[in-house]
Amino acid sequence: MKKRGFITIFPMLMALAVLPGCSKLSASRSASDIGGNRKDIPKVYFAKEITPENLKKVYDALGRKAAGENVAVKLSTGEPGNDNYLSPALIAGLVKEVNGTIIECNTAYGGGRADTENHLEAAREHGFTDIATVDIMDADGEIALPVAGGKHLKEDFVGKNYLNYDFTVVLSHFKGHPMAGFGGAIKNISIGIASSAGKAWIHSAGSTRDRVAVWENLPEQDAFLEAMAEAAKAVADHCGDNILYISVANNLSVDCDCVATPEAPEMGDIGILASLDPVALDKACIDLVRASDDKGKEALIERINSRNGMHMLEYAESLGMGSMQYELVSLD
To answer: What homologous superfamily is domain 6-29+43-330 in, according to CATH?
Structure first.
């Protein structure tokens, strides 16, 4: 795939800049398709009803407790004007149980979260400061995490404060995305944990950290997707076993929570999913969209396909970050 469609994407970015992140097996896969050692296949836990109780249930099912004095909860605070972000009422119980601090970094495209003061104000307006402390991690700078095996990035620049945390709960809103096709767990720890300049570094596939110049020097689409996977791997490698992933598939717009005026969702909510494997988790979310009987799914599927979004998962799997094969375990 060639360079990303500037006609479609750049006007959206400019608009942002002026305004003040079942069955037991996947429906797409049978037991015979999976093969291999079942013990090595990651589990993805699923609850259809989106409630605080089910959010806690999928967390408990993972069997890995958030430990340490400082627990980070990575989510998107949502661009001002966007109401699709995860509801504080939904997540408050889990955030309090793990004694978590909500973490974010500033954006690289202008808008209402490009600097720390405005970003914290957006978090306050959206209700996140009512349930936890919010840490804009690049407020005082950034640090570099090494990228093992990357062909675009050798370093991933993340908010300096990320080193303060012992454990990371990755709490993602699964939905579409105007540039990546979809946003889920991998995007949340790559673009989401990257500093403002680090976001430009990923978007340019390692060509520039300039937050203005990047939008006129975008690489081929697959290079961008691969850079996202490489940045995510740097975070996952840094955390080791001190990380887990939960995704809420609701408000399924084709646009990300970073878009101030997103397209309205055309399909209904799917549920809550969780895994210790971010590749499996993102793949399961996409598989459930594709397997849905909801006719409104076509817009989201088109967004994923038109951006070649599956390539990010294929590349992440090739880096050893996770598996696109999984066992879907219903908790209903």
So the answer is: LarA, N-terminal domain (3.40.50.11440)
